[in-house]
Write a structure and sequence with these properties.
This protein is of the alpha+beta class. The protein has 2 helices and 9 strands.
């Protein structure tokens, strides 16, 4: 593990070795004092040009979620899944939601994140981790995807004061 930075008892590290071809992935691990594994995922829409398929994605994504369950600490996965969460009757959406439920995960973005009115950008978390508080969508940017702002409960350890007693050596 490579330590990238430390700031007031929050250690930030980045290292990851999970093989994947159907999505892009970045990891950030925070330790404050509990470890929180944050992943950013981008799934390109499957098409004939990139030769990606939904079936291949779901196989890799299931393996990824299995790997995440083996990591110590809390978990959060955020990113552009390119799956319409707002269409629960869609077979691809239903399959994704079933997979999340299999691993006791919840998707927290409930407002449209795309210019065409769909929820394509997700924040996935374990309710039992108690770190996710809320997600809102900002309309401040001009892009086809709107930014998602999350409120997280990641508590930093307070350092205990250290009391020392010493003699004044000048008076001896």
């Amino acid at each position: 593990m490579i330590r990238d930075s430390v700031c007031d008892n929050i250690a930030v590290t980045s290292s990851f070795s999970f093989p994947h071809t159907t999505f892009e992935l970045a990891q950030l691990a925070l330790t404050a004092p509990e470890r929180v594994n944050l992943f950013c995922l981008y799934r390109p829409p499957p098409n004939n040009k990139n030769k990606l398929t939904d079936a291949a994605f779901f196989t890799e994504f299931a393996d990824f979620l299995e790997h995440c369950n083996s990591l110590r600490g809390k978990l959060m996965i955020a990113g552009d899944f390119n799956i319409h969460f707002d269409r629960p009757s869609n077979s691809i959406t239903a399959r994704a939601v079933d997979l999340l439920h299999t691993y006791s995960l919840t998707q927290g973005v409930l407002q449209p994140t795309h210019s065409r009115g769909h929820i394509l950008d997700w924040v996935v978390y374990r309710e039992s981790d108690s770190i996710f508080r809320s997600a809102s969508v900002s309309h401040a940017m001009s892009s086809d995807h709107l930014p998602v702002i999350c409120l997280l409960d990641i508590t930093k350890t307070r350092q205990r004061p250290v009391f020392r007693t010493s003699r004044n050596l000048g008076r001896i």
